[in-house]
């Protein structure tokens, strides 16, 4: 069996006459708009005319770098798309509207795809909220046993049980996820807090990040002869910073392979093929190069470079003109007041309401603020959430006064916020690229951005997702 790495978390599997794609991103980048793209790193190009047509495509979850509608649109109509039973209906309909056939796989029950079998396992319940619908994919062969693709979620007990009990046969390869996404030193990460509450927190170390991959996963699943690691393989355009730390495949291969004694560690670059073959009782792996994935020149392939210190000053969708600013602010306020009662009724909103002291003094009724910026002319308009009325009101405060008076809030550009609420941008894209936040406490999972990940998810706001998928189908985005 060949396991061909396509970049980020996309894979192709080939055995005999069977071809399966898992979470394919077939274009050079992914993203929902021309204004913001996430380019696969290291850079590569896929020759679609030379790529074997898939007998099936597995989608493990609806996240943008796994469920890439533009790539599915490049496949021949009628392609068989395999999804889990928690895959959102709005995503399923978008695939069907592209002319493909969606098949829901019962949890943990294999389905034949010619010479191979595919099964999906729900991730562990302890996974983050927005990852609870993630499935692990298992690609099984009669002669070589199974390949497990972790995807984003924590490894589930049922997968561990079946692996240890031999239900999956020999585990020939485990593909683990490196989802750390640590920005270059000095660059702002997605969960960065504008308040200096975590200034003393030590930076994430590579040895800590990969301890779970090299030690915890083998301890859970059992004997694994080959372990591959992927993830964090993209850079933003327009740039916020260079590629993530601990995502350089060549460097990681040099440093991590000697640390693992029980299994061979592979950290492939796009286009590399892990060719699994049985030699007696052993599973051996040869690393070759796929002829239909071309590695492109990457000037910074050996160093972590390029950091934009002024990343927030440029919005994704540009400035709002003076003639349009009044309508844009009214639209933004209307969307905030639609969200206000939802926010105050959630555990996050209850935590916001319970914050009574801030910067040495009592807090009034305004506990959450949104500072809306415009590119040029430079301006900022703030709205505050009064938790007693569950409604946003204009704040007559300076930028600094809002930060020092309100314990929770976000910074976002007016045009970008309205694009999010119109279905022209996904929350993950905006939060990753052009949003800032501040919050009390040390837990980034109890922060405004983490809350918005839940609030704007495909299952909570399916109408926005439907608009976004319609926009993708009608646009000439990269890859279409």
Overall description:
This protein is of the alpha/beta class and 480 residues long. It is built from 13 helices and 27 strands. The chain has helices at 69-72, 89-97, 157-164, 206-209, 211-221, 249-256, 325-345, 347-353, 399-405, 414-421, 427-434, 448-455, 462-474; strands at residues 2-7, 10-15, 18-22, 29-33, 36-40, 44-46, 56-58, 80-83, 101-104, 111-113, 116-122, 135-141, 145-149, 171-177, 226-230, 234-237, 264-266, 272-279, 282-289, 293-295, 357-358, 361-362, 366-374, 379-386, 391-395, 408-413, 435-438. Strand 21 (357-358) and strand 22 (361-362) form a beta hairpin. The protein is globular. The two termini are 30 Å apart.
Summarize the model shown.
The protein has two domains: 2-308, Metallo-beta-lactamase, Chain A (4-Layer Sandwich), CATH 3.60.15.10; 312-474, Nonspecific Lipid-transfer Protein, Chain A. It is 24% helix and 29% strand. The protein contains 13 helices and 27 strands.
């Amino acid at each position: 069996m060949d396991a061909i790495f396509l970049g980020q978390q996309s894979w192709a599997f080939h055995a005999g006459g069977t071809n399966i794609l898992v979470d394919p991103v077939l274009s050079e980048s992914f993203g929902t708009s021309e204004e913001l793209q996430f380019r696969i790193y290291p850079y590569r190009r896929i020759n679609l005319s030379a790529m074997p047509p898939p007998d099936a495509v597995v989608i493990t979850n609806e996240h943008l770098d796994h469920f890439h509608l533009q790539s599915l649109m490049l496949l021949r109509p009628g392609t068989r798309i395999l999804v889990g039973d928690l895959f959102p209906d709005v995503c399923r309909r978008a695939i069907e509207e592209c002319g493909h056939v969606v098949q829901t796989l019962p949890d943990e029950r294999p389905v034949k795809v010619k010479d191979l079998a595919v099964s999906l396992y729900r991730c562990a319940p302890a996974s983050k909220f927005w990852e609870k619908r993630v499935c692990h994919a298992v690609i099984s062969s009669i002669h070589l046993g199974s390949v497990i693709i972790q995807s984003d979620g924590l490894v589930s007990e049922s997968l561990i049980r079946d692996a240890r009990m031999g239900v999956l046969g020999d585990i020939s390869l485990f593909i683990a996820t490196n989802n750390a996404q640590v920005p270059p030193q000095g660059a702002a990460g997605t969960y960065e807090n504008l308040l200096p509450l975590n200034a003393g927190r030590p930076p994430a170390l590579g040895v800590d990040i990969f301890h779970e991959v090299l030690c915890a996963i083998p301890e859970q699943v059992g004997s694994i002869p080959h372990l591959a690691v992927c993830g964090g393989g993209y850079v933003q355009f327009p740039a916020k910073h260079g590629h993530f730390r601990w995502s350089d495949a060549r460097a990681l291969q040099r440093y991590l392979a000697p640390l693992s004694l029980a299994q061979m560690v592979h950290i492939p670059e796009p286009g590399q093929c892990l060719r699994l073959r049985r030699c007696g009782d052993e599973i051996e792996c040869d690393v070759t190069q796929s002829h239909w994935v071309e590695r492109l020149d990457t000037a910074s392939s050996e160093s972590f470079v390029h950091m934009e210190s002024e990343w927030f000053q440029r919005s994704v969708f540009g400035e709002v003109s003076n003639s349009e600013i009044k309508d844009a602010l009214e639209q933004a306020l209307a969307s905030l007041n639609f969200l206000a009662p939802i926010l105050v009724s959630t555990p996050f909103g209850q935590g916001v309401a319970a914050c009574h002291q801030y910067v040495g003094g009592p807090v009034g009724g305004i506990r959450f603020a949104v500072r809306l910026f415009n590119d040029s002319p430079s301006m900022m308009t703030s709205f505050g959430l009064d938790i007693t009325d569950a409604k946003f009101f204009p704040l007559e405060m300076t930028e600094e006064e809002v930060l020092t008076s309100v314990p929770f809030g976000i910074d976002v550009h007016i045009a970008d916020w309205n694009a999010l609420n119109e279905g022209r941008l996904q929350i993950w894209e905006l939060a990753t690229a052009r949003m800032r936040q501040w919050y009390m406490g040390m837990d980034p999972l109890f922060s405004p951005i983490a809350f918005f990940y839940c609030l704007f998810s495909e299952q909570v706001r399916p109408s926005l997702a439907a608009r976004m998928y319609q926009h993708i189908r009608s646009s000439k985005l990269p890859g279409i």
